[in-house]
Design a protein that fits this description.
The protein is an alpha/beta fold. It is built from 11 helices and 6 strands. It has a 6-stranded parallel sheet with strand order 2-1-3-4-5-6, sandwiched between helices. Strand 4, helix 4 and strand 5 form a beta-alpha-beta unit.
């Protein structure tokens, strides 16, 4: 008789990066007790984070922003460029700092404040690993405000008007056209607008596929095309662009 051993899915491999040893140990302890998560390393600054990420190739990096030698933004940029399959989750005390916006541009996929609950941290680690993007309401608001501040004097009033008058209905029945200050950005089709709105809700490609009745591979192609048209680097940046149109300044 042949016995087939059941195989559990591989655990999510996490690298914890923070310059405070107490926070590193606390996060490591919290994550390590989860059966589906494994902490593969701890780094005390951005230099160590880049080195360890290159060696360990974690699935998720839990990244602080303000650290000595090399900050979290620079480390995030290097890690996401060299390790496209590694996802960075920013965990920060900053809720009103331009560094958060810069981390979006650097390629981070999610943002939490350090007062987040254990459940929120664990769920965000899992969501990021699934390919989703997450922004806490505080961070989303600050990033949207920063987008508006970076608009030109001519475009800024229009951006505010668009954000307030082109809001998506709360029932998700329609989408607002996405406008950027990049004159080379291309207009999106109705289908692309719908997919973008689902990205802004943090949906994975699989969830989007079910919602719009397309194959998951087709959705992936749509997402790539949307990123190309809007000149976005990450799904999180796409989500922020969409959120900016949903809410006023």
């Amino acid at each position: 008789m042949t016995v087939t051993a059941s195989r559990e899915p591989p655990r999510i491999r996490v690298l914890v990066v923070d310059d405070q040893a107490l926070i590193r140990r606390g996060m490591t302890l919290m994550l390590s007790v989860e059966p589906d998560i494994e902490v593969v390393g701890q780094a005390c600054d951005g230099v160590e984070a880049v080195e360890m990420a290159g060696h360990l190739r974690p699935d998720v990096v839990l990244m602080d922003l303000h650290m000595p030698r090399k900050g979290g933004v620079a480390a995030t940029r290097e890690i996401t460029l060299s390790l496209p399959h590694t996802r960075v989750l920013v965990l920060t005390t900053l809720d009103a700092d331009e560094t958060v916006f810069e981390a979006v541009r650097a390629g981070a996929h999610a943002y939490l404040l350090k007062d987040a609950s254990e459940e929120e941290v664990l769920e965000t680690v899992r969501a990021v690993h699934r390919g989703e993007s997450r922004l806490t309401p505080q961070i989303a608001r600050k990033v949207m405000d920063q987008f508006l501040r970076l608009a030109s004097p001519i475009d800024a009033p229009h951006a505010r008007t668009a954000a307030s008058t082109c809001a998506v209905p709360s029932n998700g029945a329609g989408t607002a056209p996405i406008r950027t200050n990049d004159p080379t950005a291309e207009a999106l089709s109705d289908k692309e607008e719908r997919i973008l709105s689902l990205i802004a809700e943090g949906k994975s490609n699989k969830q989007i596929a079910a919602a719009v009745f397309l194959a998951e591979g087709t959705v992936k192609n749509y997402v790539s095309r949307i990123m190309d048209k809007l000149h976005a680097n990450t799904r999180t940046e796409l989500a922020v662009m969409s959120l900016r149109q949903r809410r006023g300044h």
